[in-house]
Amino acid sequence: MRRVLLLLASGILTQSSAYGADSAAAARGEPVEQACQKIYAKGWHATEGERRDEFPKLARPEKGEPFADPVYGTCVVRVTAHDREPPTGFARNDYSRRQAFNADNTKLFIIAYDGAWHLYDAASLRYLKPLRALSGDAEPQWHPTNPDLLYFVPRDGVGMKLYELNVRTDEVRIVGDFERRLKKQWPGAYTAWTRSEGSPSADLRYWAFQVDDADWNGLGMFTYDLTTDTILAIYDFKANGRSRPDHLSMSPSGNYVVVGWDEGPFVFTRDLKGERPLAKNGEHSDLARAADGDDVYVSVDYEKSGGPVYMVNLRTGERTDLFNSYQMHTATAMHFSGKAFGQPGWVLMSTYADYSRVPLPWSSAPQWLHRKVFAVQLKSNPKILNLAHDHAAYAKYWTEPQASVNRDFTRILFNSNWDTPSELDVDAYMIVLPRGAMALP
């Protein structure tokens, strides 16, 4: 379901004085959170429900100048400025299914047009440095408790290793070497990755990878325990009459693996047994934790009347429809982020590329969920919290907002070309929420 990142730029990135440029807020000696507290001190509460509000018209904000969303009052700030500081081409959040913020919300990473990765201070928004160890589809994952550590694979999984990077010291070490073990099963094994959309368990212990040969034919998949450096189970695609999947991912609990095939997503237990279908079609989705701790698959069903957004409990198989996405003969594309593992019971959504399926005056076509970032409670008849308009004017893949939430649902990173028609004039923006914003009865 994802577009593959472009090649890493040739040549070595060099540091310049621009790399240390402070944001406007930092230049005043005021961290972003402190500036946002002033915005919330004026009085704020989450705007609930299916609110069809006018799209606000705003000039593109300057980097580092927090402002209140004119409709929902949330604190929003532009994080990157690719036209004035590295990286060039664009500076965007990688994907909705990937956690952009480290364990203590002090740092975040950004992907550039050339496939290079970059590190920012998430408090001051200061550009820190390129992450030279990473390139292209490196699938970085932050450590759940150590804010200095992230884990990644070689570009596209070529090399079949899992690495740990200390972003403070730039030290890299191999923590999982699968090549010898996988070649015993598949002599032609060439890659071990998730095809850009997977994540490990919330505690980083359990992982799932798919294996391809040098011609990108799918060979199989395996589950892995990082704590014990053990391959737990292996599944051969050919032996089971399966083709190469679009992606796969471990669930937050580590109890399940969800695999996205052309015929729809399927769930397996960690030992790669007990295969069950989750849906007939594979759309954008993510895995999240329900309020009771169960793993759920959250997606949209465009084939069913109303186009419902829904969730499926991976333990029980029960499906719950959350709300209908088809509103007044309109439809919209969307992404999901279930990465708020410390605030279970919620999923973040971001929408783009809305359109009317029948001739309607444009003023009547946009509906409540269009071009917006909002939170949805994971229960029947859910609460919906409107957070901000994303100002994403759809112009192909790179302009998709692809909002990602942090672990405690206090930070959200999303992409925007800010109402321009450009495919590449894209920067990352952050929504800062007060603690407790999601603690609703």
How many beta-strand runs? 30
The CATH C-level name of the domain at 133-277 is: Mainly Beta
Give the % helix.
under 10%
Largest beta-sheet characterization: 5 strands, antiparallel
Query: Mean pLDDT score, rounded?
Result: 92
CATH overall fold name of the domain at 133-277: Methylamine Dehydrogenase, Chain H
| Helix/strand class | mainly beta
Give the strand order of the largest sheet, numbering strands 1, 2, ... along the chain.
1-27-26-25-24
Shape: globular
* Radius of gyration of CA atoms, rounded to a whole number: 21 Å
Measured by DSSP, the beta-strand proportion falls in: 25-35%
Q: Oligomeric status of the shown chains?
A: single chain
Uncertain spans, ≥5 residues at pLDDT below 50? 3-23
- Straight-line distance between termini: 35 Å
Query: Do you know the CATH architecture of the domain at 133-277?
Result: 7 Propeller
The CATH fourth-level homologous superfamily of the domain at 133-277: YVTN repeat-like/Quinoprotein amine dehydrogenase
Number of helices: 3
Notes on the structure:
The protein is mostly beta strands. The chain has a domain at 133-277: 7 Propeller (Methylamine Dehydrogenase, Chain H), CATH 2.130.10.10. Helices cover 5% and strands 35% of the residues. It has three helices and 30 strands.
